[in-house]
């Protein structure tokens, strides 16, 4: 198990309040070695969520971060945006089982959540849960994740 993660965190204005709380939690977590913030400057900054999702995903693909945590109103827009970056598997999850399976079954590097969908304390709990899991490269899910990567690389799935 990896001892520490480098995490990129981002949000648009609709996820900014939760981003501030989660960033502080991540910075205090011994499982996190560093936090890169690509979020808007404040909740009045209207930078669109696609810019934030792509910026965070690019940090993961470039090897500057191991994982990404993204927030917007629903968690859907940032996930769609992050998934446009080749090599990224971003999931929106609002329950512990989906967070777990996102990592263990799908090797998702990016977790997305919605500030308008779930409560602040649940996002904190799910972020903690997310840091507990790491994809097992010997699991039965490797072939399925490989099929995703193959499709992304060749535009066809076997």
UniProtKB/TrEMBL annotation:
Keyword vocabulary terms for this entry? Isomerase
Question: What is a GO molecular function of this protein?
Answer: ribose-5-phosphate isomerase activity
Isomerase as a keyword of this entry, yes or no, is yes
**Listed SUPFAM superfamilies:** Ribose/Galactose isomerase RpiB/AlsB (SSF89623)
Q: Which residues are the signal sequence here? A: none
Q: Which Pfam families match?
A: LacAB_rpiB (PF02502)
Q: What class of enzyme is it?
A: isomerase
Q: What is its EC number?
A: 5.3.1.6
What family does the database annotate? Answer: Belongs to the LacAB/RpiB family.
Note the PANTHER family from the entry.
RIBOSE 5-PHOSPHATE ISOMERASE, RIBOSE 5-PHOSPHATE ISOMERASE-RELATED
Q: What is this protein called?
A: Ribose 5-phosphate isomerase B
Species source reads Nesterenkonia halotolerans
